[in-house]
Amino acid sequence: MELHLLNRSSKTDSSFSVTHNSYPHFLKVWHYHPEYELVFLEKSTGTRFIGDSIQKFKPGEVILLGKNLPHMWLNDDIYFMKEKDKSAEAIAVHFKEDFLGGDFYQSPEFAHIGKLLKRASRGIRFPISKRQNIHEEFMSLFVKDPFLKVMSLLRLLNKLAKQRNYELLSSAGYLNAMENQGNERLDKVYAYVFDNFKKEVSANEVSDLIGMNPSAFSRFFKRTNRKPFSQYLNEIRVGYACKLLLENENTITQVVYESGFNNVSNFNRQFRKIKQMSPSEYIKFHKEGI
Asked: Which residues form the HTH araC/xylS-type domain (predicted)?
């Protein structure tokens, strides 16, 4: 899965952009950009890839992405069928960290928003309840008055910064990997893993891919990612397994092999290690809301 740099800068005289996207399906491109991205999902379902996080998405969720964090919203297969009358809709806001000035978030009044943006380096999902009227707040961003538009964005960021219920998406170790974007060898490794994690992948074949011996590759990968290659691979597989577990047609045994694990016991062990709960507990937690 090749990583692309996209231009998300404002094409108007505004310091940030707000768009209402409505397509048969979302852009099927693994990409990143220097702007922060704030998204409200209005319609459609599928799989959300953010850093090394792989999860199902559904309408009503709010996502805040930090600068240069790779991501992709991949709609379910039904959205790519021409005979199906489906649409994918979202409101997306893109802004640079310094769009209000370099020291803006250092002031006491806005320091909490600065902390929110730091957390966004891993990607944040906010489970919004219906009573919060978050959609109306996103719609207020389309006001024509530029001053009111900025105030609407600050009011929205203020609300999200005060939310106690949120989920950090990609792993902490992934942040260090992001610092190496543009490193041709690492880009090849990440792309290869995303394309092949469902089958057997060895450190030897990956090291051959980038012209390093296995020992040197092991040291190189651990130094740049702060985790062994095997752990990184298992985290990708468990992330994909989480997505499969929430699809009703899959049994846990099917998920084990579809996500790249070769036996149930190893899957259960790695899943608990990464998610701090068993696969069945994960299903119950997300489907019953406990």
From this structure: 187-285
Report d(CA 244, CA 253) in Å as an integer.
11
The whole-number pLDDT of residue 165 equals: 87
4-168 belongs to CATH 3.40.50.300: no
The full length of the chain comes to 290
CA 266/CA 90 separation, integer angstroms: 38
Q: Which two tokens stand for residue 212?
A: 């390093």
Largest Cα span, the chain: 59
Tokens of 82: 């021409």
Task: Give long-range contacts, CB 8 A cutoff, 24+ apart: 161-164.
Answer: 161/112, 161/113, 161/115, 161/116, 162/112, 163/126
pLDDT tens profile 53-103 = 888 898 999 999 999 888 889 898 889 887 778 899 999 999 998 888 878
> What secondary structure letter does DSSP report for 95?
E
Residue extents of the structural domains in the chain? 4-168, 173-288
Q: At what angle do helices 264-275 and 229-245 cross, to 10 degrees?
A: 90
- Chain CA centroid to CA 283, Å: 20
The pLDDT of 195-215, averaged and rounded, is 91
DSSP H helical segments within 210-263, as ranges?
214-225, 229-245, 252-258
CATH of segment(s) 173-288: 1.10.10.60
Beta carbons within 8 Å of 147's beta carbon, 6+ residues apart: none
Backbone φ and ψ for 92, nearest 5 degrees, come out as -125, 135
Q: What is d(CA 49, CA 144) in angstroms, rounded to the nearest whole number?
A: 33
